[in-house]
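Possible regression after last week's pipeline update?

I re-ran a chain I had predicted before the update to compare outputs. Posting the input and the new output here so someone can diff against the archived version. Not blocking, just want to make sure nothing changed silently.
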Amino acid sequence: MRAGDDKPALTNLLTIYSMFGGQPVAQIEEQYQGQGYARFKQDLGDVVVAALAPLQARLAELAADPSYTLVCSRRAPSAPRRSPSTP
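New output (post-update):
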């Protein structure tokens, strides 16, 4: 398994794994050399889930806080007026 311009989808997945897992792409390529994509894709999912777990926990914590959800619900209607337009 190797990243390359001729394999944009695989290169993208390897980059995602690298960013979330903290390993260089070359190391990931070596780790999965000679293996099928099924194991790589399963491990990629595990790496992404593990990396996002703290964010999900914090979001759940905020969502459970009535004062936070009250502020958000009050501010939501004004958000489009306050945020700048994007091209």
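Follow-up from reviewer: compared with the archived run. The radius of gyration is 19 Å. Marking as no regression found.
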